[in-house]
Structure formats: C-alpha cells, structure tokens
Amino acid sequence: MENNLLLAIFVLLAASVALVPLAKAAGLGTVLGYLAAGVLIGPYGLGLVSDSDLIHQIADFGIVMMLFLIGLDLQPTELWRMRHKVLGLGVTQMLATSAIIALALLASGFAPGIAVIIGLALSMSSTAIAMQSAQQRDITRTDAGRASLAVLLVQDVSVIPILAAVPLLAMSIIALDLEVTEAVEAMANPLDWITPLIIIGAFIAAVVAGRYLVRPLLSYVARTGVREAFTALGLAMVAGAALLAQAQGFSPALGAFIGGVLLADSEYRHEIESNLEPFKGLLLGLFFISVGMSIAFDVLWSDPVRLVALVIGFVGIKIAVLFTLTSFFRMHLADRLLVAILLSQAGEFAFVIFQFAERAGAMASEDHALLAVAVALSMATTPLLLLAFDRLVAPRIDARKQAGPHDPIDEHRNIVVLGYGRFGQIITRMLRSQGFEMTLIDDDPAQIELVRKFGVKVFYGDASRLGLLHAAGVARADLVVIAVGGHTRILDIARTLRRHFPNVPVASRAIDRGHAHELMALGVEIFERETFLSAVSLGAKVLTQLGIAPIDAMHMAQAFERHDNKLLEESFAVRHDDAAYLGMVRESMGLLDDAMRGDQPTIPVDITVPKRTE
Questions:
Q1: 278 with 289: CB under 8 angstroms?
Q2: CA-CA distance, 81 to 75, in Å (whole number)?
Q3: Residue 390: is it exposed, middle or buried by C-beta count within 10 angstroms (0-12/13-18/19+)?
Q4: Is the pTM of this model over 0.85?
Q5: What number of other Cβ atoms are within 10 A of residue 197's Cβ?
Q6: Residue 200's pLDDT band (cuts 50, 70, 90)
Q7: Helix 143-170 and helix 252-262, axial crossing angle in degrees, nearest 10
Q8: Residue 255: C-alpha distances to residues 261, 271, 465 (Å)
Q9: Are strands 414-418 and 459-460 parallel, antiparallel or unpaired?
Q10: How far apart are CA 440 and CA 267, in angstroms?
Q11: pLDDT of 464-523, one tens digit each?
Q12: Which of 69, 87, 180 is nearest to 135 (CA)?
C-alpha cells in the first residue's frame, strides 16, 4: 500500500469509523480509539499502512490548526491576563519537571548530558491530546483550560532552545565531528543578538498585516459569496502563520496560535472557526493514528518492566509537579488534579528531540527506540487517567457538580442575534436599552462595514451553518433571535436550532401567516410577522387621519391584533385542509367586522377626507 495513497486513506478512515465510536461508547474517549486504530493498521498490527512518516507529517498540520483555532477563541486582553500563569506556571513547570527527571536518571546511571536531554524532552506535554481533551470537556475557558494552555505555550516556545542545546550537551558525552559542529553553529545562530530584533519585527509585521491586509482580504472574499474561497483563505492563513514562525526558528504551532489571537477580535472569527473545525478534527485524528502506528511492540516485549517503570515514573513526576504548582494559583482541588492529568503525558516534540539527539551522537539508537515507545505509551495513559478521574475522583472531591441552588443570575443574558439588518437592529436596540449583551452575526460584509463605523461589533457568518452556531456559543445561550431575511433561510436556521439545540429558546422573524405556521410546526413559539404590526399601526394612523378619535383607533388596532393572533393559533391545526382553513378565515373575518363595528367613536368627528395639497 506504499504507493496507493487512495487505499491508505480508505484504510485510515475505515479503521477510525470502526474503533473510535466503540472507544467513545465505552467511555474511553476518542483519542484512545484513534491510537487503537493506528496500532491495528500499523506495521505491528495488520501492516495495512507502512508509510507512517508521511502520515505523521500531514497529521502535524492538525496540531497547527488546533492552536490557530484556540488562538482565534482567545482575545488579546485575555492572553495578557494569563501572563502570570505563563511565567509562574509554564516556565516553572518546565524547569522543575526536567530537573527532577534528570536527577532521577542520573541516579539510575545515565550520563549528565543525556539525562538533561531526556529530562527536557519528557517535561513537554502533548498539545494535541491535552487541548483536544479540554475541548471535548468544554473547559477551554475555565481555570483548568487556561492553565493548561499557559503551560503548553511555554513548552512550544521552548522547543528551539532545547534543540539548540542538544548538540552542546552532546559535547559532554562524545567529541563532536565536523558535521555535528556545523549543526551546533546552525542551531546557535538563532540565539545571536539580532534574532530578538527579527522576532519583534516579524510580530509587528504580523499585527500590521492582520489589520491592514488580512481583514480587507477577508472582507473582499466574503463579498464574493464563494464559500470555498473563504475556506481556502482560512487554510492559507493557518499555513502562512505557521510558516512565518518556522522561518524564525519557532514552533509552527506557536505561530498558528499567535495568528489566531491576532484575528480573535475580527468580525469574521466565527465564520473562519466554523470553516476550519472539520479539518482540524480529521487531521488531529490522523495524528493520533500515526502515534499508534509508531509504537514498536518488539521493543515493548523485549524490556517491558523497564519501559513500564519509565512511563509510570515520568508521568507520576509530571502529575506531582503540576499539582503542586497549580496549588499556588488558588485553583480548586478538582481543577488542579485535572490540569496535572491533562499535561501528564510526553509530547509530540519529544520524538523530534530524541531523533535530533541520536543524530548528534548524544543517544544510542536502542535508547532512542525505548524512549519513543515510552512517549507513545504515555499518550495512551491520559485517556485512561481521565476516565478514572471522572468516575472515581471527581464525584468525591468536586462539590461544585453536586445539586444545589443556582448562582444569582447576572443582569446580562447570553443572547445571540442572527441577522443585523433593519429588523435585527430594532430588536437589538430595545434589548441593549435594558442592559442585555448580545452576540451579533450577519452575512452581509457591506452591512458589517457600515455598522462598524457606529461602534457596533457584528461578526460575519452564515447563521444556517451548525459549526458557526456552535462557535457562537448557542449551546449555552439563554435566547437565540432569528432576524435574517428570506422565507426558506429562516426555516433552515430554525430547523437547525431545534434539531441540535432543543433546549435553547428561539425567537424568530416570520414573513407571513403561512410562514408563521411553518415555524410553529418546528416548535418555534416566539415569533412575529414582519409586516403585521407595522400594517396594524399604519391602519390606526389612517383611521385617525380619516377622523376617528386616536384613542378609538388605538383600541381598534389592539382588538384587530388580538383577534388575528387568535385566528393564527386556531388555524394552525387546519392549515393543510384548504376548505376548513378558508371557512375558518371567512367566519373570523365576519366576526372581526362585527366586533369592529361595535366600537363607536367616543367623540363625534368629521370623517371628511382632507384634500391633499401638492
């Protein structure tokens, strides 16, 4: 299957479909299912896919895309508020964990240089596993999620300095030949005095480009209405941000994260997120499969006791260090333990560091093989530890999940308004006047540009797309208002909301009586016909102009509104029976005429129609 990419893709997808749902149903999580799929089809399983390196390279893009989407969901102000966790938790974790692991290896007989290299590599965690698990639990915005992200950011920044230090540490083990000396010089160059200036300049250029180049480009592509072009632009932005960071000697994932943060306050954020989310999920699954394929079972069976002791040892050390450090940040006991478990495994960059160490002559090939298997096995321990945490630990220590009185409701409700045209603007202004906060979404770039001049923040996006609704936080909303135009479009959005978010109240704009009936059939009970009230109001004004007293005209209008709304509800049951429906409408019109004639004017008036003056 080496040369048949189509067959390889089929096998990967088939294995995922077969094992991932089983692992999810068993409560083991999707990560363990992907790892099992990789083992099954890999060289130590059925041997259906052999080119694991190519698959691993493609899968790494899943990590890059995940960091971009995480950055996209993180406002720059929030990132600044995380600075204490980044420095106090992230940096300290790296130093403490690597030092303890290195000392343990020294006591086991390892040379100082190789002990430090292994300690640094194993101190890093898997961004893919940690953040994927956090997102599946919906805790990325909690203390646990933010603390995990802070640690992972520091680890990503540390990759290049660690790689640069590997040849230097190798010099304490062997005499370097010319090739290794050149590697040292090549890796040392990014640490010279001019590199910080280049990095700062690149960051400033990225900020300027994001504001004055990327956003206008997003606006232009959005105006074309070609959705695949918008998706392609989103993928290009992810790749471009990763390549820019890689060119400066940093982790591509870190560059993607910064690129996402720079676009976090863009009105196109939700649309980009909904477009890229499916790619991220597939590529991350491919990454976990490639890890499962890389587990060398011949190494595992040759020295299982040493391998298991190594995995338990460094996973235990990382849990202990992270649990201790998070205690200084006044986190809940359950959150501290959860962070420690989420970051307990070794990361994907450990494979790169060990490979580079072997190339530099600092590590024997046997040790490299053993450590690579240990890293892969540690990734498999995280879903199992999380399962144990959920079932055995959390119910006993996390009292926050026990039933009890709700916290006082904040005066601002979580409201999502879909559509910011004339209809949506009126609703929004009424809600805002009472202190409510809203997420506003519209798919007209020109309208978004116009209202932005008045200081109104509206996100660009197609409200009929499920991914966008998830990205906008509809699942946690108190109310969703459908204010877009178009008969079919309103029904499509209402149908998606009722199918995927059945417990979220929905208020909708209705085009006419028949459209209102269709919304009622979907379970939307809060709606208003867009021309009905304006027509009733205008009718009252016309009556006043024709000589009816204003108070009587207002009462007639209110009576008409009540009667017509009652007819709307009663006619819903017979809407498909034309004869019954027409009979009910005729009878209702007669009753309305009688009721309206019964309202006599309170003051005699002249009902002569005034002549229009030109």
A1: no
A2: 10
A3: middle
A4: no
A5: 9
A6: low
A7: 150
A8: 10, 21, 28
A9: unpaired
A10: 9
A11: 888 888 888 888 888 999 988 888 888 889 988 988 888 888 988 888 878 888 888 888
A12: 69
Task: Kindly state the average pLDDT of the residues 599-606.
Answer: 44
DSSP state of 608: P
Q: Identify the residue whose tokens are 């007819």.
A: 567
Q: Specify the pLDDT at position 589.
A: 65
Token couple for 12: 């990967």
* Non-local CB neighbours of 564 within 8 Å, separated by 6+ positions: 532, 592
HEC sequence for 583-606? HHHHHHHHHHHHHHHCCCCCCCCC
Reading the block at residue 6, the tokens are 């189509």
Strand-pair partners of 527: 508
Both tokens assigned to 62 = 């899943």
Supply the pLDDT for residue 313. 92
The answer to which of 75-84, 105-114, 302-311, 358-367 has the lowest mean pLDDT is: 75-84
Question: CA 377, CA 392: separation in Å to the nearest integer?
Answer: 22
136: confidence class by pLDDT, cuts 50, 70, 90:
confident
Q: According to DSSP H, which parts of 344-421 are helical? A: 349-359, 365-388, 394-397
C-alpha angle 440-446-448 in degrees, rounded to nearest 5: 20
Give the separation between CA 286 and CA 282, rounded to whole angstroms. 6
**In the block, residue with structure tokens 């298997």:** 373
Residue 99 is predicted with a pLDDT of: 92
Contacts of residue 109, defined as CB under 8 A and 6 or more positions apart, other chains included, come to none
Mean predicted lDDT score pLDDT of the chain = 76
pLDDT confidence of 100, banded at 50, 70, 90? very high
Residues 6+ apart with CB under 8 A from 64: 238, 239, 242, 252, 253, 256
Query: Which neighbouring-strand residues pair with 417?
Result: 440, 481
